[in-house]
Design goal:
By secondary structure, the chain is mostly helical. The chain contains 9 helices and no strands. Helix 1 crosses helix 2 and helix 5 (83-93) packs across helix 9.
C-alpha cells in the first residue's frame, strides 16, 4: 500500500527533527537509530523505510542544507550588487543546523562539502583571475578565513549583524590585518 506523500514527508521530517534535537546535545557520530526512533515516536522498521542508517539521514540533512544555501548564493550573484551584499545574504541563509554540522560535534567532512559547492560561487568575488598562479591557494585561504570568522560569529551568538560580519570579513580578507588596522578596505572586482 502506497503512503500519501504528505504523511511520508511528515514522518521523514519527524526523524529529521529528532536528529537535530539530539545533535544539539551530543556528537553526531554518537547518534543511534534507537534514540532517533524513540524521540520521533516511531519504531526501527519505520526509520529504515526512510533511511538506510544514521549516515544516510546525515547525508539527507546535509544535502538539504547545502542546497538551500547554494540556492540563496546563486540568487544573490549580481554584477550590480557589491560583494558585501552577496556575502550578507549567504551568511543570513546559514542557519543553526549548519553551525551544528560545522562545529566540534558535527561532521568533519561537511565543511569540505560546503566549500566544494560554494567556492565556484564565491571565487567570482576574489579579485584574482582563475587562471592566475596559485589561484587555488588564494581561494582556499579566503574560504578558510570566511568559515573561521563565521564559526566565531556563531560562537559569539551572532553579536554583530550579518552586514557587519560581511564587512569585517571583506576588510580582513582583501585588506589583510594591516589594511584592517589602518582602516582601509580594498574591494575590487575583476
Amino acid at each position: 500500500m502506497k503512503k500519501q506523500p504528505e504523511i511520508t514527508e511528515r514522518t521523514r521530517q519527524r526523524f529529521v527533527d529528532a536528529f537535530w534535537k539530539l545533535a544539539r546535545t551530543k556528537p553526531i557520530s554518537k547518534i543511534a537509530v534507537s534514540e532517533l526512533t524513540r524521540l520521533a515516536g516511531y519504531n526501527r522498521s519505520t526509520f529504515y523505510e526512510y533511511f538506510l542508517d544514521t549516515d544516510d539521514l546525515l547525508s539527507y540533512v546535509e544535502n538539504k542544507l547545502i542546497g538551500e544555501v547554494k540556492e540563496v548564493a546563486q540568487e544573490s550573484i549580481s554584477d550590480e550588487k557589491p560583494p558585501t551584499e552577496f556575502f550578507r545574504m549567504v551568511f543570513s541563509a546559514m542557519n543553526e543546523e549548519i553551525y551544528i554540522l560545522l562545529g566540534l560535534n558535527g561532521d568533519s567532512s561537511f565543511l569540505s562539502r560546503v566549500r566544494t559547492e560554494l567556492v565556484p560561487l564565491t571565487s567570482r568575488y576574489i579579485p584574482v583571475k582563475p587562471d592566475s598562479e596559485n589561484f587555488d591557494y588564494l581561494v582556499t585561504f579566503v574560504n578558510s578565513a570566511m568559515f573561521g570568522l563565521l564559526e566565531r560569529w556563531h560562537e559569539n551568538n551572532k553579536d554583530i549583524s550579518p552586514e557587519e560580519i560581511s564587512e569585517l570579513m571583506q576588510r580582513l580578507v582583501y585588506g589583510g590585518m594591516r589594511g584592517y588596522l589602518d582602516g582601509r578596505t580594498v574591494i575590487e572586482r575583476n
